[in-house]
Write the structure tokens for this entry.
Amino acid sequence: MTAAAPWVADALVVLGLLVMTAGVYGVVRMPDIYTKLHAASKSVFLGVCSLAVASFASGDPAIFARTTLIAILLILTTPVASHAIGAAAFRLREPMISPDAIDESEHLPRPLPAAAPSGGDGRAAAAGARISARSRPAVK
Amino acid sequence: MHQAVFTVAFVWMTGLVAFLVWGLTRARTVMTRILILDVLTLMLTALLILYADATRQSYYLDAAIALALLSFIGTIAAARFQSERRLF
């Protein structure tokens, strides 16, 4: 166990590195924010958790108590933060520009407050309004 | 963890952070920038974990905990304020 621990840590670090690389590449390259959120909230988070598990091999309680705390905090906070970002993007009518995007929500987003900022440049907001008007089914 | 793996991983993750910053400059909407900043702080947390693990010093992890919590609060505050124009 003790002899194999550094090698297990190496494997976990390399695994976390690969997962994080895929996640970061997805965050930069995905076409719209809803697909970017997949890469951000799953891949990068799981990569960090893999690194946290790798630190168990160091055998220092001061280190692995803290990394366990970080992993638990991330497990609790990452879904909430991702949901906040997704809900805000939907409310701001950010367009779904990935191919075959389907909006299955049954309602339009609530109207924006009066002094609402546009969700970026005006062109993107206009495209979002057009796409949402076309792709959402009429509410009975 | 062996020294070679640590060096390669550290350099590689620094490259990932630089790639994210480049993506941040290319982001078109405000929500995308908020998302990329969130991922950036997550990557910095990972770098701190890696460094603390390699040097066997736990001080860096206190900073990592603070960074993880602050990025959570900051992301939620920024997203809510951007869409609702108020926080509560």
Q: What stands out?
A: The helical segments of chain B are 3-26, 30-55, 59-84. DSSP finds three helices and no strands in chain B. Chain B touches chain A through 50 residues (CB under 8 Å).
